[in-house]
Amino acid sequence: MSNHHSSKPPASRSLPAHIQAQLNSAGGETDTGGQPWKGRNLGEGTSHRHQFSEDDGARDAVIAEVFEKFVSGSCREEDVVRALSQCRVFVPVVAEVSHSVVTDEGLVADKEADMALVSIQAPDGRKALPVFTDVKALQRWHPDARPVAASMRKTALSAVEDGQQLLVVDPSEPITFVVRRPALWALAKGEPWIPSYADARVEEALNALIPEGSGIVRVRAVAGDGVASQTAEGQRLSGGGAGPELKMMVELVPGLTQSELNIVLEEFQRRLASDELVGQQVDSVQLVLSMAYSS
Fewest CB atoms less than 10 Å from the CB: which of 10, 12, 26, 67? Predict the structure, then answer.
């Protein structure tokens, strides 16, 4: 779990800028010997047709419908994750040189190339896997990548195994939806997901972690500033952001000195870091302090 201070919601969609930066370095049009990848047969399993013979590559109607509802505000981000759990997605793979030689002319020529998943990096350094609900969206994002179709659960399992912390659904499309780590784990396990800010168990656990007599009156769990995302046209959406996911509203007794406050927060954060439920259910947090006043 990573800690974040309060910040304003991003002015644009959460990931497109660095997604594009990663895209530019994910693989060029030619190999290191100057030979184009285009037209090469890069092996079985590199096209959606191999696993889904009847699949035309279009976005599933259920996903299209839930995205429409999400934009209209008639469903929540957990509803989007639930719909994604039942669909197939496309993962981009690119050729990665595994063996090369130097020619008599002094040029580096590729002798063997393996297929590798395209991995991108979130602004906070976490690894993210781009996935697409529509094969044409993948081709727009990276024309040289090959689409590999798989169920969302299988994709999530592979992402977890590879140390990915986020799934980025349809990067650079009108709606880009980030699946954060707890939701990713839930998809991999085939379990339903409840956002930490909406999970009563999380707020209960946070208050159980308050040291007795510490000066903390209570902790309220609300949606973090990074939960929201935006469409390409700038419409604010109630979920699908990269985080911070959970805003902890910590109410303090009045009159604490700075030294006392530091001791209180250090002990609370130590307990927070070791709590199993919080570690599993919370992706990233921001801490907001306020004074508690009796009415």
Answer: 12
